[in-house]
Batch of 3 targets.
Target 1
Amino acid sequence: MTRKAHSPLDSQRPPSVQSPLETLVAQADSLAGVQQLVVGCERCPRLREHCLATARDKRRAYRDWTYWGKPVPAWGDSQAELLLIGLAPGAHGANRTGRMFTGDRSGDFLYRALWEAGLASQPEGTHADDGQMLRRVWMTASARCAPPDNRPSPKELQQCQPFLRRELQLLPRLRLVVALGGIAAVSYLRLLQEQGELRTLARFPFGHGRLYQFPKAAPLLCCYHPSQQNTSTGRLTAAMLADLFRQAATWLDDPAFPHPGVTSLHLQEQAKGRPR
Ligand code: SF4
């Protein structure tokens, strides 16, 4: 049984102006190589200072921890079919543990939903050596350093884009991108725009459960970010998140996905017609 694979971004096409780091990232020949470059990155002084200050000052509950404090690399299954894009590391979560979505409430919510969908080996992610494994999923973010107030600036997001660009190129089996929040969706859409897959982002408004398809690139499935702001208000429930990832896993099991003609529908509308 063959599955449709997407190579959404042309690795031979260089961005117009490249910094030395961008050149190194573009030349990285593996996801591990990208991870290494992420960890050593110092491009955004404001974010680096914030991460180090948070690691030094610590939260009282974690005063016995040695915080990671460095940029947090993406992680997961190097043969992933699903790319999961978050916003940025949590100051006392991934910035503490060194693994994305690990050690805070957003991660608790997310890993449980992935586990329920069969995309993670454990319902929790507490620390980098907890035995958690992602299945079919590569977990990344729009920015790799924890930003003050969870808000990276447009320039900081742009400076972090080369890592996402290269990860997309290094995932040959990719079939679906799940964006956690509007900023993550825009990060992916901007890369598609750069590659000529779309002209304007205005045709792709963010909405939980919306699925967008493109001529060559992997489809985009939008999902509310599992931030405390969303989960504590009920905007995003555990059931909603688990449903979305179950749907995503069903699509990955379907060799005919993405179905032609489906361009932008809400998850529930999609679910009505999904193969059983
Ligand atoms: S946010 Fe990205 S580009 Fe900026 S310093 Fe961190 S890793 Fe580097």
Target 2
Amino acid sequence: MSLLPWAEHEHAPEIGTIVCLETDIPKVGGKEFIFGETKRPFRMFILRDGNDIKAYINGCSHFVGTPLNPNNVGNFLDANDPTLIYCGVHGSRFLLTTGACVSGDCEGEGLQPVPISVADGQIIIG
Ligand code: FES
């Protein structure tokens, strides 16, 4: 499956957009951010990976356009293994560190990372 690069998605935030404070990201689990008030907004989530911070498009590689947290349920992590991101639709699991699928209907695929950086305590796109 070929996925659209993150920046080409409708409503993708521009490089340099301030997303939140670094302290807004919980110690465990991810936080979702939505850009564009439409039926098909740009949805992404940010979570901690040890001392690092990762961001991915909130879209499962099993069904493109389907968020991993249907009805906003869950914190994006596998309840039994917090090193894995969990899709609440059909249960696929992805490595938190890379977004690569490790089990489920997404095998051979993965989540799409969104580049972020931290500066002065703020998380910024790019
Ligand atoms: S939509 Fe995520 S596993 Fe099916």
Target 3
Amino acid sequence: MSLLNSFIKIGTYWQMATKNEKNALNKIARLGCILCRTAFGVQDSPAELHHYRRFGQPRSASDILPLCPEHHRGNSGVHGLGRKGFEAKWKVTQDTLLEKVHELLKL
Ligand SMILES: [Zn+2]
Ligand SMILES: [Zn+2]
């Protein structure tokens, strides 16, 4: 069973993703929640994939943040608080989190 079966799929993006992109998405999901990792040092929070789209950029696997259900859809999450609220509460921008994801994927 694919690890991603337990994750929220990203609609049409997932369906249209190439094999390489799907591999990338699997790797991202395996990192665990990037906010838990950054804020609390927890490395294995189960993650959902949040498609954070940078303005003017086409959709791609490089725009995806792994976030646990709470930090994704919960009261302290990016959808619960909205982008500005989320970044103010956690004192981190989604850009910074995304850079962190990219750093970790290089290892
Ligand atoms: Zn989290
Ligand atoms: Zn999301």
